[in-house]
Amino acid sequence: MHKGKGMKFVGDSRITAERKPNIPKDYSEYPGRTEAFWPNFLLKEWLVGAVFLVGFLCLTAAHPAPLEGIADPTAAGYIPLPDWYFLFLYQFLKYEFASGPYFVIGAIVAPGLAFGGLLLAPFLDNRPGRKVSQRPIAVSLMLLGMASVFWLTYEAAEHVNWEQRAEENTPELPTEVEIDEDHPGYEVYQNNSCIQCHGESLEGGAAAPPLTDIDHSVDEIKDIAQNGIGDMPPGQFEGTDEELQQLAEFIVEVNESGE
Amino acid sequence: MLQKLYDWVDERVDITPLWRDIADHEVPEHVNPAHHFSAFVYCFGGLTFFVTVIQILSGMFLTMYYVPDIENAWRSVYYLQTEVAHGQIVRGMHHWGASVVIVMLFLHTLRVFFQGAYKKPRELNWMVGVLLFFIMLGLGLTGYLLPWDNKAYFATQVTLEIAEKVPFIGEATKTLLAGDPNIVGAQTLTRFFAIHVFFLPAALFALMAVHFILIRKQGISGPL
């Protein structure tokens, strides 16, 4: 860059008034068949990128991203699994020598040594030779590390029935029902003992199941209200026939609104 | 017309040196798959960057629908997946890209390792690269929770339990990540969301810039 006396600037700025020519370097003087990145090599890279993108989009179209049901903290039987690239750590922490009293070894010391070693590889393997044959220790440690990661991942994934997991956890939109509290049937529901066990929003309770997501007809509900079902004793309903009809129609309507 | 526009900008901000720095660099014969097919191993770094760009773009579009809230997170993903035009493709790209980027990073790391390309004077760039790998794993870990489905919830619970058991700093770390010493809930989701879309990407961009500037300054390692 030109410096010192005689420099000309654009206006009062620090941009030099002297224009540099915008021409590429000449790569013919470079060793071997060196190519310029712009535009020669970039075009080829672009093609590789396009082929890669097509393959990637095929994968995306063929296998939609999985989604399980909405998180339910009360689902006690659910067996958690991390994403596949954490499976090796997950598996490692299952072993006796890496869990319980040895947790610190399994979760901190061992991964810390492995990843710390990876981070500091240039200082641990600091001799100038680059060939694989010139650095047997570094290369064999890496091969050992790779073999353990592959093996641990295989061990973790082998016992999982992926298809069954996917089937058991299909996403379902939770049904939302609308409770029309102005419905004459709701008044009947309130005035009889129904509300005490089945709840204000038909959500059910300790003594009775919810009245949403049920598959009964008006007549069946009328029968249940008078004669009971399961743990529900008969004679719970004490209103007129007209009220009974309103009540049953109300419950059916609520269930239809959730579909 | 374009030339005039370029000259107009160039006169005012002197962009030619900057442009020549970006465009003018050599591609030596030994890394060029057009001359030696085995040189395709040098593509893994570039492909990692390519998938990272896919992740950034698809992630930006996902945030147009995603709601980081325990009531609506899952519903917004379900809606995106079932109702929004091409929503399934965009989410699919982000989901599969998260796996492909790890595979590409792994291959790129192996290429550099087995060629001993991290040796003097490239030690710093290797360390920056390993840090980038860790950040990518962190992005995978935090992104896993965001759909708020069962596998997300329970996997995160396990992760936080592991973090909690770390001596001395464990409980503080768990509280920092989850927002509460005991509950995995609304706070956890917003924190993971913030970490996933602001904190980690910021670190990722900064380290990527360093990674690329160092490559340009030092040049690609020579043939073995």
Q: Please identify the top-level CATH class of the largest domain in chain A.
A: Mainly Alpha
CATH topology term of the largest domain in chain A = Helix Hairpins
Rg of chain A to the nearest angstrom? 36 Å
CATH superfamily of chain B: Cytochrome Bc1 Complex, Chain C
Helix content of chain A: 40-55%
Cofactor (chain B): heme c; heme b
Domain Cytochrome b/b6 N-terminal region profile (chain B): 5-224
Transmembrane segments (chain B): 39-67, 96-114, 126-146, 193-215
Function (chain B): Component of the menaquinol:cytochrome c reductase complex.
Structural account:
- The complex is a heterodimer of chains A (259) and B (224).
- With 259 residues, chain A is mainly α.
- Chain A folds into three domains: 1-65, no CATH class; 84-168, Helix Hairpins (Orthogonal Bundle), CATH 1.10.287; 184-257, Orthogonal Bundle (Cytochrome Bc1 Complex, Chain D, domain 2).
- Helices cover 47% and strands 1% of the residues of chain A.
- Chain A has helices at 37-62, 87-92, 103-119, 121-124, 136-158, 162-168, 184-191, 194-198, 218-227, 241-257; one strand spanning 35-36.
- The mean pLDDT of chain A is 87.
- The longest helix of chain B has 33 residues, at 186-218.
- Chain B contains nine helices and one strand.
- Chain B is an all-alpha fold and 224 residues long.
- In chain B, helix 3 (43-62) runs antiparallel to helix 5.
- The model of chain B has no long low-confidence stretch (mean pLDDT 95).
- Strand 1 (35-36) of chain A pairs antiparallel with strand 1 of chain B.
Summarize the helices and strands and which ones pair or pack.
The complex is a heterodimer of chains A (259) and B (224).
Chain A: E1 35-36, H1 37-62, H2 87-92, H3 103-119, H4 121-124, H5 136-158, H6 162-168, H7 184-191, H8 194-198, H9 218-227, H10 241-257
Helix pairs in contact in A: 7-10, 9-10
Chain B: H1 2-13, H2 16-23, E1 26-27, H3 43-62, H4 73-82, H5 87-114, H6 123-145, H7 150-164, H8 170-178, H9 186-218
Helix pairs in contact in B: 3-5, 5-6, 6-7, 6-9, 7-8
Organism (chain B): Sediminibacillus albus
Subunit structure (chain B): The main subunits of the menaquinol:cytochrome c complex are a Rieske-type iron-sulfur protein (QcrA), a cytochrome b (QcrB) and a cytochrome c (QcrC).
GO molecular function, one term (chain B): oxidoreductase activity
